[in-house]
Design brief:
Elements lengths: L1 H4 L3 H29 L9 H4 L16 E5 L12 H5 L5 E4 L7 E4 L7 E5 L2 E2 L22 E6 L12 E6 L9 E11 L3 E11 L3 E12 L14 E15 L2 E14 L7 E17 L5 E18 L11 E18 L5 E20 L9 E18 L4 E16 L10 E18 L2 E12 L3 H4 L4 E2 L12 E13 L4 E19 L8 E20 L4 E14 L4 E2 L7 E9 L3 E10 L9 E3 L2 E2 L8 E13 L2 E8 L32 E10 L1
Parallel strand pairs: 4-7, 21-24
Antiparallel strand pairs: 1-6, 2-3, 4-5, 6-7, 8-9, 8-33, 9-10, 10-11, 11-12, 12-13, 13-14, 14-15, 15-16, 16-17, 17-18, 18-19, 19-20, 20-22, 22-23, 23-24, 23-29, 24-25, 25-26, 25-27, 27-28, 28-31, 29-30, 31-32, 32-33
């Protein structure tokens, strides 16, 4: 499989053009063939039943308190890259730190890195690059999942210690009662050579099932609104297989294997990603209705490896020497949880999770690095115990509370530092309590108080020779402590008008700040400070007619550094989106107008592991995009759109600064793509 994507780039591009045209022909032909060969699975849907949100421009407002759920397979505008970070951009409160065409770092409410939990089908994953070339979302291919769920704030303990929030990329299991199949396929073509394919095929019966998923995405360098080419090309692919055994309606055993690889150019640094190889294996067990007291038992064990290569010659004009860096990471983990029913009005989730990470590194030139020995520089281990209780007080009132304790162990395996060979242990508690009250059909008000303590991650204490104010090593950096108030409402004012509001206020002790304002190069200073953030999101949806709907989403966050009496760095500005969508079940049309305010609050040279403030105010901007769609039949629909219709030149406030790449014009920030045309076909037999 890897050989298919490697040698002879010209033939590779031509091969996938042919593949795309073949897939297009298959999409057009399959509905006709299916109609001839079998009776339709369901009666013809009415126009109302066929309405589907063809293009996601802003994720649906919260359906439950602090929870946003969006369809991972739905077309989106602006068109995302292949990775998980770009898909999150449609969720109010999220921004992405631009580095090139892909692999940006997701930022939620101004928080990035390990302050944001990212899980792929229940598994914690981590990147390998010390400079965040491959954040966890770089290894997530969203269309290979069914659903993306965002949990805001430290208001849950069952998915690990969390500070800003948790993102779950999830695959659904739908049991088979008789031999049957399900099929999803997607093809997208767009400007700058954009070419995506995805195929998700499932089949099974009451006892066995199998699922095969393959994805591929590529794009050449894009141009900004001024016509300047940005060093941003990429090509990524993934493949996975899942086999399941369901001996009865309450038992499931599932084995999965996934592989992926690719390459990506970066406009913010002197190296590109030449290899993103990942292998993952997992075994899952689920048992339901065990007894009147034990409703469900879940168990998951997994193993994954990341082998990442960076160099300065594969995707750009090389310098005088061809340099290579090759980090890798091995992660093993397990999770066991149970749903217990102590009474008719109570639910208790209890469990344990564990993960171990081993990070290694080697470097050299294009001739020597493969023979160099991999040297371990750090390892991290964590065991967590958690319990989350939901208690109904009345028919309309409930109380949810959770407690968690994490036992951390980390070892500095480097040589030549004051902490070399040292091991540290931390026991860190987390917890929350939340009150919810229903006050009408589809309406809930909530208020919650949460506390979390986060252990410093690899990028904060090890990578790039991190140092503290008093030592040549940042290994002993204190854990970060966040106490946060969350409140809001999901309010269905009328059947046509819905609004969702969530607000938060956070006080952080020992906030881990990356500080580049002191002359320590090549080392980077890491400090603990006091910090405060507050803000929130508003989502409003109004149905003007059964076919025409308008929407507004607003997101705002403000942060302060209480130690240095400065703004907290890497805070995105006020972000608003206005949408108008028409869908009659056959035709759909939509428009998105995004307005972002100027950002005059910054702290030059300071920030987080994903980026630091550049030090210049950013102007506000407005971007207008349009889309349309046509449903040929229930299973086949086409969407098309133009992102950035008026070819605006702009950059996100937290974008990385441009590097001097031979053959490209350097810009202060990496600009977003200019006008972008795209066409997408989806086939879905479910």
């Amino acid at each position: 499989m890897r050989f298919l994507f490697q040698h002879n780039p010209a033939w590779r591009k031509q091969r996938f053009r042919l593949f795309s045209l073949s897939l297009l022909g298959l999409f057009v032909a399959m509905p006709t063939l299916a109609a001839e060969e079998q009776t339709p699975k369901t009666p013809a849907a009415t126009a109302e039943e066929q309405t589907l949100d063809p293009v996601v421009v802003t994720a649906a407002p919260m359906s439950d308190p602090l929870t946003v759920v969006t369809d991972a397979k739905a077309p989106r505008q602006p068109v995302p890259a292949h990775d998980g970070a770009d898909y999150l951009k449609t969720v109010p409160g999220f921004t992405v730190i631009r580095k090139g065409g892909s692999d940006g770092d997701p930022v939620f409410r101004g928080m990035a890195g390990s302050r944001l939990n990212i899980l792929a089908d229940g598994e914690m994953i981590h990147g390998g690059c010390g400079g965040r070339m491959d954040p966890p979302t770089a290894y997530i291919f969203p269309e290979s999942f069914d659903r993306i769920t965002v949990l805001k704030g430290p208001q849950s303990v069952i998915w690990g210690p969390v500070s800003a929030g948790t993102v779950l990329f999830e695959r659904d299991f739908k049991p088979y009662t008789a031999p049957d199949y399900r099929l999803f396929g997607g093809l997208m073509l767009g400007s700058y050579g954009r070419n995506d394919q995805v195929l998700d095929a499932q089949a099974g019966n009451a006892t066995f099932y199998a699922r095969m998923i393959g994805t591929r995405s590529s794009m050449d360098d894009y141009k900004d609104g001024d016509g300047k080419r940005v060093h941003s090309q990429y090509m990524r692919w993934s493949g996975g297989a899942t086999f399941g055994f369901t001996p009865n309606e309450t038992t499931r055993l599932e084995l999965s294997a996934n592989v992926s690889d690719g390459e990506a150019a970066y406009a913010d640094r002197m190296m590109d990603g030449a290899k993103f190889a990942r292998e993952n294996y997992s075994l899952r067990f689920e048992k339901k209705n065990i007894s009147a007291f034990v409703e469900k038992l879940d168990a998951l064990v997994y193993y994954n490896t990341i082998d990442h290569v960076m160099d300065n010659y594969s995707l750009r004009q090389p310098g005088s020497t061809k340099n290579v860096s090759n980090p890798d990471r091995q992660t093993t983990g397990l999770r066991v949880s149970g749903d217990l029913v102590p009474g008719d009005t109570s639910l208790l989730k209890v469990g344990v999770d564990q993960q171990s990470n081993r990070h290694r590194f080697r470097s050299g030139n294009n001739l020597t690095y493969r023979s160099a020995k991999r040297v371990e520089d750090a390892n991290f281990d964590n065991y967590g115990l958690f319990a989350e209780w939901t208690q109904s007080l009345t028919e309309k009132d409930r109380l949810i509370a959770g407690l968690r304790t994490d036992f951390w162990r980390a070892e500095d395996k480097r040589s030549g530092f004051s902490t070399s060979g040292k091991t540290r242990h931390e026991t860190l508690p987390s917890g929350f309590i939340r009150y919810e009250r229903d006050y009408g059909e589809g309406s809930t008000v909530f208020v919650g108080l949460g506390h979390s303590e986060r252990f410093p991650d690899y990028w904060e204490v090890i990578s790039q020779n991190k140092q503290s104010e008093t030592s040549d090593s940042a290994f002993n950096t204190k854990p970060e402590k966040n106490t946060q108030l969350d409140l809001g409402t999901v309010y269905r004012i009328t059947p046509e008008l819905q609004v969702a509001v969530s607000a938060f206020y956070s006080r952080m002790r020992d906030y881990i700040l990356i500080d580049n304002t002191r002359t320590l190069k090549p080392a980077i200073l890491v400090r603990n400070i006091k910090a405060t953030t507050y803000g929130g999101e508003v989502g409003l949806s109004y149905a003007l007619t059964p076919q025409l709907r308008s929407g507004v989403s607003l997101a705002y966050v403000r942060g302060s550094n209480g130690t240095d009496h400065t703004p907290l760095a890497q805070m995105p500005p006020f972000d608003s989106r206005f949408t108008l969508d028409y869908d009659n079940g056959t035709w759909s049309f939509g428009a998105l107008w995004r307005l972002v305010a100027a950002q005059n609050r910054f702290d030059k040279g300071r920030g987080n592991i994903a980026g630091q403030d550049i030090g210049e105010p950013t102007a506000g901007f407005g971007v207008f995009s349009v889309n349309g769609g046509y449903r040929f039949r229930k299973e086949l629909y086409m969407t098309a759109g133009i992102d950035n219709l008026f070819n605006k030149t702009y950059a996100e406030a937290i974008s990385r600064s441009g590097s001097m790449v031979p053959g490209y014009i350097q810009t202060m920030r990496i600009n977003e793509p200019g006008r972008f045309f795209w066409l997408k076909l989806n086939l879905n037999f479910d």
